[in-house]
Specification:
six-stranded parallel β-sheet
């Protein structure tokens, strides 16, 4: 089976990072923040400009030091050992924060991602630096199951493959019969071995 795995919000706990670092940033800079988070508040930031200001400052720091989710490495290793192909599909290098700084920053982010995956012992067969529309990359890599947290990505993928939505405050309002919500890497493993 070909398993596609997003990084931010799936391998990392993006929600917790924003709830701590993002919230502290908004306090220091007297900006608005929604701790309840939803897809309408730019992951907690009330204004898109506030989100951009935060990520301008913290994007590379986050990329280097964010923790991997509990059990992610061991579950992925087990899935690989059981004969599954692991394909990391991330749009992080095509985020607007990176694009505005050009190709040099994009290449730097790609290297940070590879180094972070190695440091955290996330073993994979292939990494795809996708754009914000992952469907073509998922189809080109014959993904059977995609693990994703972004509602916009889930919407574009759900008709062509099984999609697991990694639960977060910012996607909690999203519901679709075609999509299975998971709360941990152990949930992901249980789902995959059944299917």
């Amino acid at each position: 089976m070909n398993i596609g795995i997003d990084i931010d919000g799936v391998l990392t706990d993006l929600e917790n990072y924003i709830l701590t670092e993002g919230y502290n940033f908004t306090l220091k800079n007297n900006l608005g923040f929604n701790k309840e988070m939803n897809e309408n508040s730019v992951y907690g930031f009330l204004k898109k400009e506030d989100s951009h200001q935060f990520w301008d400052k913290y994007w590379f720091e986050y990329a280097k030091n964010v923790s991997v989710r509990s059990n992610a490495a061991s579950v992925i290793k087990k899935l690989k050992e059981e004969g599954n192909k692991i394909i990391i599909i991330t749009a992080r290098t095509y985020d607007s924060q990176i694009i505005k700084y050009g190709l040099e920053k994009q290449k730097k982010m790609e290297q940070l991602i590879i180094t972070w995956l190695e440091k955290n012992q996330i073993f994979y067969d292939k990494i795809v630096f996708s754009n914000l529309y992952k469907l073509k990359d998922c189809l080109d890599n014959q993904i059977d199951i995609m693990i994703e947290d972004s509602v916009s990505n889930i919407e574009q993928l759900k008709n062509d493959m099984k999609v697991l939505c990694f639960d977060a405050k910012y996607n909690r309002l999203y519901k679709d019969k075609k999509v299975t919500r998971v709360y941990s890497w152990n949930d992901i493993y249980k789902f995959i071995i059944i299917h």
